[in-house]
Amino acid sequence: MSWIRVAVLLFPAFGCCAAPITDSVRLSTKNLYGIGVHLQYPAVIGVDAARLNPLIERWVGAECSQSPMIRNTNLRHDTYLDAKACVTALSRQCAAWQAASGRSVLALSPCQAEITVAVKTETADLLVMELSSYGSTDYGTVLPAHPGSDTEYLNLDIRTGRALGVGDLLKFPYQAALQSMILRSLRAEFHIPANEKLTQAGFDNDYPPIPRRVEVLSKGLLFAYQSSELTFPAGAPPKVLVSYTALSSLIPENGPLSRFLDSSGQRH
Fold first, then answer.
1. What are the sequence ranges of the domains in the chain?
2. 173: Cβ–Cβ under 8 A, 6 or more apart, which residues?
3. Which of these, 43, 66, 102, 182, has the minimum number of CB atoms within 10 Å of its CB?
4. Helix/strand/coil percentages in the chain, nearest 5
5. Closest CA to 37 of 16, 64, 76
6. CB of 69 within 8 A of CB of 137?
7. What's the pLDDT score for residue 64?
8. With contact defined as beta carbons under 8 Å apart, do 118 and 6 qualify?
9. pLDDT of 171 strictly over 60
10. Residue 173 pLDDT more than 90?
11. DSSP for 200-244?
12. What is the mean pLDDT of residues 118-126?
């Protein structure tokens, strides 16, 4: 059984929002076994709708190729322009795997895919979304499925329509200082003494890279590693939270994160 799910949660923060969120858009297709693909994502209403909704649609489509159902197939090379194109691709892959199973008694479950996008933070000038994918590529066997997962973040500047990465959020040069903060957080999370190298604790690198994926939270930046970025002792790839207090010297005074730092009373 293959499934991809993205939850929709809304946590308004810091007053009135310039880009209110309405009920989620839901797209689904059915096959002979019932629901084949389900995709859910939020839509902006109001004056910003015509400008921001196409950006959200394109982001959902662009991330489709990274889903566990698509990324190990030939479909990963295709370009998906929006959510509808993503649903079509997932449906094609479901149909291919179901055909390969021969619809036999060994195919215990129908191929199902669920994708949902969550609004995590919404302010007057920032919209943060999380796209989480789960899935399995084990079909036509009696063995239990081995699920994969994928999580992506969109930190959207409402004023400009730009997706904000680490370089847009912090002052240059930030790399050395941020890497040290991430290293301290990893040591704390995995209880690694200061005199012990990360490689001694099972990691493949004593100085882990700065993850590509970052989520803007009200209390700090959450960095999420992928398996390809960091080999770790066990379990899911770690997520590292670096507080705005620790980041205070790297946050531009008029940048997207300044409101969070000011609200915590750390701005001097």
1. 25-157, 166-263
2. none
3. 102
4. 30, 25, 50
5. 64
6. yes
7. 93
8. yes
9. yes
10. yes
11. GGT-S-SSPPPPSEEEE-SSEEEEE--TTT---SSSSPPEEEEEH
12. 88
For residue 41, the SS3 value is strand
Tracing tokens 């979304």 back to the chain, one arrives at 129
- Tracing tokens 């993205």 back to the chain, one arrives at 6
Beta bridge partners of 242: 221
Per-residue confidence (pLDDT) for residue 192, from 0 to 100: 93
Q: Which pLDDT value is given to residue 113?
A: 78
Q: Which two tokens stand for residue 46?
A: 């109001």
Distance CA 163, CA 63 (A): 13
Secondary structure of residue 76 in the 3-state scheme = helix
How would residue 104 be classed by pLDDT, with cut points 50, 70 and 90?
low
Peptide bond preceding 193 in cis form (omega within 30 of 0) = no
Is the per-residue pLDDT at 106 higher than 60?
no
Please provide the CATH number assigned to the domain covering 25-157: 3.30.565
Quickly tell me which residue has 């479909």 as its tokens: 75
pTM value is: 0.81
CB < 8 Å & 24+ apart, contacts of 134-137: 134/3, 134/4, 134/5, 134/68, 135/2, 135/3, 135/4, 135/67, 135/68, 135/69, 136/1, 136/2, 136/3, 136/68, 137/2, 137/68, 137/69, 137/72, 137/97
DSSP string, 133-176: EEE----SSSSPP--EEEEEEEEEETTT-PBP-HHHHSPSS-HH
Please say whether the beta carbons of 89 and 70 come within 8 A. yes
Class of 166-263 in CATH: alpha beta
Residue 103 reports pLDDT greater than 90: no
17-33 average pLDDT score: 74
Q: How, if at all, do strands 34-41 and 126-135 pair?
A: unpaired
